[in-house]
From TrEMBL, chains A, B:
Belongs to the GST superfamily. Zeta family. Pfam families: GST_C_2, GST_N_3. CDD domains: GST_C_Zeta (cd03191), GST_N_Zeta (cd03042). InterPro entries: Glutathione-S-Trfase_C-like, Glutathione-S-Trfase_C_sf, Glutathione_S-Trfase, Glutathione_S-Trfase_N, GST_Zeta, GST_Zeta_C, GST_Zeta_N, Thioredoxin-like_sf. Its EC number is 5.2.1.2. Keywords: Isomerase. Residues 89-215 form the GST C-terminal domain. Residues 1-84 form the GST N-terminal domain. It comes from the Bacteria. GO terms for molecular function: maleylacetoacetate isomerase activity. This is Maleylacetoacetate isomerase.
Length: 215, 215
């Protein structure tokens, strides 16, 4: 069965799924979808047929297409449980999911390409206002994330001693924060976890600069 | 062990968790947090201590507090598996999660109170522009959601013959769409599922107008 991940080098949602595939050692090919070129390749009829939301990523396995990065990762984790991306204990699983969702619901969607395009298009906001918007939601989300990590007593990873879905969400979000010059000094636990994850091959190989469509 | 759900009658994220508790028949008390009164009770020191994101819902069980509605629901489903809110098959579970996340990531967070307050405050947008923004993201999300339902051949529920996390996300979002006068004519499957769910006691009793803090 052929496994294809539709991806864009700079998409943080796609990056999460690239890490999952590499951590689990699952053979796959990458199909780049350029989100800006030609008005956005995600809007092509071919791509819309497999992802009606017209966003990346999409995982295709044979004739099955799965969308939404966290749905893809939980699916991969259930079908290919080793190494696990969630702990075994229900409360620890809840901790992982609440951290992951803090980023995947409350930071990333508010800052993604289509939102910034709406702010600068229909709402006529400046690049400066769009950048301030972007940084505002990262700071608000990271303030809460750092407090949650402190309450958990996190070390090298968000929860426990192995990468979980929370780390898969955090590392791409930290990359975006740096790209938009967010001061990370108030977030020592976030910075430490990001630095540790970025020593692992699955995180290194999946980063934007290592992608076939990197610019 | 005492179980308390911190909730606000009109919060759609809180409504999802109210449905889950009722479907599973789990004894609990509701602790209303008024999101507007006194500058927002979610910003009080007492509440911030259990939810550093300063949003509802939060589930408290004894001295454990869990945030993020989908993390709460998956936790309840793992600890109290009957009736299940996810199917058994991994692909069907992925279908439920991708539908749920289409709402929980790509519609709801973009439209929640703090975003609308930022649009009207720092960005100086009018009530009309904020309302247009709200309707735009519901329409874009529902367009994709309806196509996904069609591809699944959905009937009375989003996936299969029982309520799942996808339905728990959909019904509160439909309520919001109606509140903002979104034309639902293009979404017959969404309307049908919403109507069917709203015949079930857990959905009826958890709706905003039935809450102790309803206005």
């Amino acid at each position: 069965m052929e496994r294809t991940l539709y991806t864009y080098f700079r998409s943080s949602a796609a990056w999460r799924t690239r890490i999952a595939l590499l951590l689990k050692g699952l053979p796959h090919q990458l199909a780049p979808i350029h989100l800006l070129r030609n008005g956005g390749e995600q809007h092509s009829p071919e791509y819309k047929a497999i992802n009606p939301q017209e966003v990346v990523p999409t995982l295709q396995e044979g004739d099955i297409a799965i969308t939404q990065s966290l749905a893809i990762i939980e699916y991969l984790d259930e079908v290919h449980p080793s190494p696990p991306l969630l702990p075994a204990d229900p409360l620890a699983r809840a901790r992982v999911r609440e951290l992951a969702l803090t980023i995947a619901c409350d930071i990333h969607p508010v800052n993604n390409l289509k939102i910034l395009q709406y702010l600068k298009g229909p709402l006529g906001r400046s690049q400066q206002e769009a950048d301030d918007w972007y940084r505002h939601w990262i700071r608000q989300g990271f303030d809460a994330f750092e407090k949650k990590l402190a309450a958990l007593g996190s070390g090298d990873f968000c929860v426990g001693d192995h990468p979980t879905i929370a780390d898969l969400c955090l590392v791409p979000q930290v990359f975006n924060a740096r790209r938009f010059n967010v001061d990370l000094t108030p977030y020592p636990r976030i910075v430490r976890i990001d630095a540790h994850c970025m020593t692992l091959p699955a995180f290194i190989e999946s980063q934007p600069s290592r992608q076939p469509d990197a610019e």
